[in-house]
Every structure is written in structure tokens, then in C-alpha cells.
Amino acid sequence: MTRRLTAALAALLLTVTPFAGAPASAAPASAAPRVAEQVLTWTADDNITRYKSAPTTAVAGATTIIWENSAATGNTTGMPHTLTFDTTTEGYNHDVTLNILANPFDANDGRHQATVTLTPGRYRYFCSIPGHSQMVGELVVTDGGGGGDTTPPTVTAEVSGDRDADGNYLGAATVTVTATDADSGVDTVEYQVDDTNFQPYTQPVVVTAVGDHSVQFRATDQAGNTSTVGSVSFRIVEPDEEDTTPPAVTANLAGEQDDDGNYIGTATATLAATDAGSGVATIEYSLDGAAFTAYTEPIVVDGVGMHMLHYRATDVAGNTSAEQMAHFTVVAPPVEDTTPPTATAAVAGEQDENGAYVGVATVTVTATDAGSGVATIEYALDTGGWTPYAAPVSVRTTGAHTLRYRATDTAGNTSAEQSATFTVVADGTDACPASDTRATVIIGGDDTGVANADTGDGCTINDLIDEDAAYPGHAEFVRHVETVTGALVVAGTLTRRQQGAIVRAAARSDVGA
């Protein structure tokens, strides 16, 4: 049954898509096309975290790609793998579209061939089967002009692992070899442990035997130049005591959140583990029920919806932590608000036959915003400055007036300035029969020295300031004084300097506080 299902899956997914500029001889992978002069071979076995072998460099031009995942290469379980060339990640060539599924039970017994044209640059390839995306690598392609290359590659090695106070490695040491070649490109990298035999380097070398060790390494480029042999030496010692305690593993979620705690657009999960014994060996995670995957870098999740992240860690002694879990929700970013609010004003009060307001005109400003919502409303009476709008504005000073107004939403969009014009006339009666007739304007006992003039309807400036009225707060009282004196400046009752003296006295007072 397994053999039939695997073969069916291979038949369904086995594709090699032609690309722009492909030679006329390019053929489907299952058809064994003509072999180009350059041949690159990838192989796989039972391992699901890496390709068994893969080229690292090539030269530009027609190239035969051989992809084999068969019993001959070590696949004893029938596990399918793909060889897929990345055509979306920024920084890589995207001119080769290749997606070949191979397994020992397919029509080609796991060995497939395709002809492509490579161009100078870098190609990224990976396994596209869910849960296998960690099988990934790079192919560096040069322009083929390396005939004059006589410089060998540069090759280095780094030793890593948990160490004691003397610098000895506890239980294991990992040697990572890196080679570069700026001319024809690196062809092969080799290593040997303790002067045994050189063998191909395909992944970091883990040494676990207690004692002194030396790892030698070298690299050869496409032009045949081989570097001198490099070496790193180190000592491995037994851990002080048997480690039976699993690592402690944690997850940290980061990203912009809304009021409900949902992540807007993306959520990034960073995993960390510590182990005081033998040291952390691996961290793994499973997102939304997928197979556990080796953790190498923060996990960025941008799919809208609820997500479940499981994670665990294993130390060098083989102890695995209990499986931990984090759940979170990603929501789509809100649509950007670029539309300003809509603001309107209405003037109310008793009017005479000419439409003038008798005694007082009350202006009410309203604003609406269907996007991010209204943040502020402002108004300016006559030549006064902009003032935050908190309540309807009552204007009692006789004469013609203009009240300008505008609104700003939470996204920062401000409506165009609008205005309402009106005229206030005296109502023919004494508006302030119990008038404050002190000679100067006095606020909270602070004498401003400004004459306490009659404003035209029986009310003095002190009457209009009305320091004994109830105000929500000191700031509201000061704004009231600014509005009253601003209107008196427009009417010619006060000068700007006199208005400033009165407003400063209001600010110094504790009225409203």
C-alpha cells in the first residue's frame, strides 16, 4: 500500500517547468534529456533534515541536473523528497523553475534528470514537502571565466560547544568548516579527524570521544587549486556528573498588537533554551500541527487566524524537555485611514427680523470620522487663536463674528478649515442688572490695571469673565477668559496688550482649580 501511494504522489508532483531562455532541448525530468557538458548531482537518503550530497558551485551555461533519492543512495524507507529551486526569495536567481519529487518506488526508481541553463549568481534550493523545508542549500554560479584562476580557496574552521573553566569541551565539540573562493568558486571541501583519511565535508563535524583531537581541513576550487591544510585542536572531557535534567525552554512572542492582544500582520516567536548540565543540543518547534522542525532563527507567522506553537529542547546528554505550547492570533492590518473627518457647525439663539442673534449666539461644532475616529475638534473665534472645542461656544459681544473650525482624526488627517458667520445685537435690556462695577478688571484679587469697561449691553468685562461661576477645571476657565477677551478685542473694547494682561491674570489665579 505504501509503495503504491508513494508512487502515485511522485507521479502527481514530478514537474520541471520550462523557464524563459531555456534551451530547446530542455525536457521533463522523467524523460532523461540530452546530458549537458556540466553535470550537477544531488542525492538523498533516509535523513529528513539535509540532502545527502549537493553541489555548492557551478559555472554558467547548459547544465544537466541529476536528482537521486533511491535505495542506491541510502533511502531504505521510501521517504519522498523534492529538489525545488526557489523562485521568490529576494537576493537569488529566479530564472530556473525546477520541482522534482523522487522516491525509490517511482517510475524512475528515484533517479531523475533535467537540463537547465544556469546564469551567474546564486540559486537557493529546498525540499518543498511540508515538514521538510529545513532541507535547504545554495548553489553559486560563476561566469565560467576562471581559466586564469591560480589562487586556492580560503578555508577556515570554528569549534563550538559547551566548555569548562579550562576551555575543554564537555562531552562533544562541533567543528564547522567554511570555504570561499572569489575567482572560479569552491568545488569541494574535505576534512579528517586525528590524521585519519580526508573525506567530503557536507555538514558540521561532531566529535564526542574523550581526549585530545585535531581536525584538518582543505578546499579545492573549480580551477583545481587546493588550499594548504588547516587545522584546529581541542580537548574533550567527560561532564562532571551524569546529566539527567532536561533543558528549560521558553518562547517569546513579539509584534504589534491590537486592543484584544491579537498580532497585527505578523507575529514573531523567538525560542531559547538553557541547560546547566551537558548543554543544549537542539531546539525544535511545531507550528499548527506540522512535524517538529529544528529551530534556527525566529519564527515569523503572517497567516491570518489562530495559531498553536509547540516547542521543546534536547540537551547533549539526550534529555528532552516537556513539550511547551504558546497560542496566538494574527489579524490583518487595518486599512490605512487617509480621509479627514467631516466637521459641521450650527448657530442657535433668538434672532431678530434681520437674522441677527439677540443677546447671545451659541455655536455647536460636531465631527464624524468613519475610519480611525475623531481625535480633536478646534475652533477660533474672529481673530483669536485655535482653541480645543469641548462644549458649545456662547458669543455675547455685539457685532459681526466669524467662528472657524476644523477636526483631526486619530490617523492625523485634518479637515479643511470651515467657518460660520453671524451677528449679535443687544437685546435692549440690561443683561447684567447686578453688574460688577469695579474700576479695573480684577481676577482672584489680582488687579490687571485694565479699565473695567461696559461692553455695550449693561455688562462689564468683569461680568463677562464671571470668575465666580462653576468651571470643570482651571484650564477651562482660562480658555473662557481667552474667548471673552478675544471677542472684546474684535469689538474694539480691548487692545491685544490689555487682553494679554487679563489672560495672564486668569492663568495665575486658582479659579476652577
Automatic annotation (TrEMBL):
<dbReference type="InterPro" id="IPR000923">
    <property type="entry name" value="BlueCu_1"/>
</dbReference>
<keyword id="KW-0249">Electron transport</keyword>
<keyword id="KW-0479">Metal-binding</keyword>
<dbReference type="InterPro" id="IPR058094">
    <property type="entry name" value="Ig-like_OmpL47-like"/>
</dbReference>
<dbReference type="Pfam" id="PF00127">
    <property type="entry name" value="Copper-bind"/>
</dbReference>
<feature type="domain" description="Ig-like">
    <location>
        <begin position="367"/>
        <end position="422"/>
    </location>
</feature>
<feature type="domain" description="Blue (type 1) copper">
    <location>
        <begin position="58"/>
        <end position="141"/>
    </location>
</feature>
<keyword id="KW-0813">Transport</keyword>
<keyword id="KW-0186">Copper</keyword>
<feature type="signal peptide">
    <location>
        <begin position="1"/>
        <end position="20"/>
    </location>
</feature>
<dbReference type="InterPro" id="IPR013783">
    <property type="entry name" value="Ig-like_fold"/>
</dbReference>
<dbReference type="Pfam" id="PF12245">
    <property type="entry name" value="Big_3_2"/>
</dbReference>
<dbReference type="InterPro" id="IPR008972">
    <property type="entry name" value="Cupredoxin"/>
</dbReference>
<protein>
    <submittedName>
        <fullName>OmpL47-type beta-barrel domain-containing protein</fullName>
    </submittedName>
</protein>
<dbReference type="InterPro" id="IPR022038">
    <property type="entry name" value="Ig-like_bact"/>
</dbReference>
<dbReference type="InterPro" id="IPR028871">
    <property type="entry name" value="BlueCu_1_BS"/>
</dbReference>
<keyword id="KW-0732">Signal</keyword>
